[in-house]
Design brief:
There is one protein chain. By secondary structure, the protein is α+β, with helices and mostly antiparallel strands. Among the domains are: 110 residues, Trigger factor ribosome-binding domain (Alpha-Beta Plaits); 96 residues, Chitinase A, domain 3 (Roll), CATH 3.10.50; 54 residues, no CATH class. The chain contains 11 helices and 12 strands. Strands 6, 7, 8, 9, 10 and 11 form a 6-stranded antiparallel β-sheet that branches. It has a 4-stranded antiparallel β-sheet with strand order 1-2-4-3.
Length: 438
């Protein structure tokens, strides 16, 4: 068998394959015998018809089956013999099998481009500084206080904006009881605007134990449609009235959330903020360095890898949308409306992977077996025995090795990058006071 390779583009090659005549003749003879055994020839019992008559009657089919078998038998060896690893399914251009003649066919396959990464040293980027000031710590403290608000019963006054009422509802739609409008132990935050317009305002001043009659009209665009624009009335039984009180930021509060003093709580909040900002900064640094690297090193990517990356992102997006409550039809509609964005992110992801892979190979960077085993042990310790089962598969181990290698390659590039902290935005100057002429 002879092969010759032609580069059709950076990411596609064509392999011409020639099967010698003696191999063609052997396969043709096998197919001729098979057709003779299985086919019905008028005037002869199965398997007894002369080969010449079988060849004459079924010649086209025998030739087609011979070609199919020769391609099937040789394709694996052809692909294994390539210097570049084929991507996706090969496209076959079949040949014609004839007795006494060599048969040729062609295979088109996509391959990874040959990439030589240059201009990777001293990449200069500007990224946000991971600086935590007192204002950010105070904001995080306020958020923590808000999460620990306490509900205190209101006894000395009626309900007011911001209070929380626990009520029972008996609803009537245009004078007729409607169970859809009822409920017991319903929570209403007065002034939050979660009820239909005008409903919450009528509860101001109410006290626990009272029954308040509320009248309101559903908006014209309300759903369900049979409620739109309709007048409704409720008997609202006030079970409890609460006010939410934010705890004072003091040592007592710190102890409630697990710290001996407020100072220790503030120190912990600062440390966590610094960690979060540093992680964000690192992610942004990597993104910007890779962006510059890809701008300096342009290359074409195989369509099959781009398509696979797009499909992977679409599956993840579909799963996320379904988890958020979207039905299948709505989720697919949202995905279709975001195809352009999915395509861009998929292309960037593939380009990043190929660039780092090429850089790692050129620099001799690789995650060896010892490093791979240590990383798997770390993951098992963090995630449990399910992870151990996962990495028993050689395919998953090699995928992890590839990811580790690419991380090391990126770290090498980052070590050489020139990183500048962004200057904080200057506060807007206040407009000067202008005195009017008397």
């Amino acid at each position: 068998m002879k092969t010759s390779v032609e580069a059709l583009s950076e990411v596609e090659i064509k392999v011409e394959v020639e099967i010698p005549a003696e191999t063609v003749d052997r396969e043709y003879a096998r197919q001729l015998s098979r057709f003779g055994q299985r086919s019905k020839v008028k005037g002869f019992r199965p398997g007894k018809a002369p080969k010449a008559l079988v060849r004459k009657q079924f010649g086209t089919s025998i030739a087609a089956e011979t070609a199919r078998a020769l391609i099937s038998n040789s394709l694996g060896e052809v692909l294994d013999g390539l210097e570049q690893t084929p991507l996706g399914e090969p496209a076959i251009e079949p040949g014609l099998a004839q007795e006494g003649e060599a048969m040729t066919y062609a295979v088109r396959v996509q391959v990874k481009p040959s990439i030589e990464i240059h201009s990777w040293e001293d990449i200069e980027v500007t990224v946000p500084a991971a600086t935590v000031d007192d204002a950010k710590v105070a904001e995080r403290l306020s958020e923590l206080q808000a999460r620990h608000k306490e509900r205190v019963p209101v006894e000395d006054r009626g309900a007011d904006t911001g209070d929380i009422l626990i009520v029972g509802l008996e609803g009537f739609l245009e004078g007729t009881p409607d169970p859809r409008l009822g409920g017991d132990h319903v929570e209403i935050n007065v002034g939050a605007g979660r009820m239909i317009p005008g409903f919450e305002d009528q509860l101001i001043g109410a006290k626990a134990g009272q029954v308040v009659e509320v009248e309101a009209t559903f908006p014209d665009d309300y759903g369900p449609a049979d409620l739109s624009g309709k007048d409704a009335r409720w008997n609202v039984t006030i079970h409890e009235v609460y006010v939410e009180e934010t705890p004072e930021a003091d040592d007592d509060f710190a102890q409630d959330v697990g710290f001996d003093t407020l100072d220790l709580l503030l120190a912990d909040l600062r440390t966590k903020l610094e960690g979060e900002l540093e992680a964000t900064r690192k992610g942004e640094l990597e993104r910007r360095v890779v962006t510059v690297l890809l701008e300096r090193n342009a290359f074409k990517i195989p369509p099959v890898l781009h398509q696979a990356a797009m499909e992977d992102r679409a599956r993840n997006m579909l799963q996320l949308l379904r988890m958020q409550g979207a039905d299948q039809e709505m989720a697919i509609e949202i995905i279709n409306s975001n195809l352009e964005g999915l395509s861009r992110t998929a292309e960037t992801s593939v380009r990043r992977q190929l660039a780092l892979e090429a850089f790692a190979k050129a620099q001799g960077i690789e995650a060896d077996d010892e490093a791979l085993s240590e990383e798997i042990a770390r993951l098992i310790n963090e995630q449990g025995e399910r992870t151990a089962k996962l990495y028993e598969k050689e395919e998953m181990r090699e995928t992890l090795r590839m990811e580790m290698t690419q991380r090391r390659a990126l770290e090498r590039i980052l070590e050489s990058a020139h990183v500048i902290d962004e200057k904080p935005a200057a506060p807007e100057a206040a407009a000067p006071d202008v005195e009017e002429d008397a």
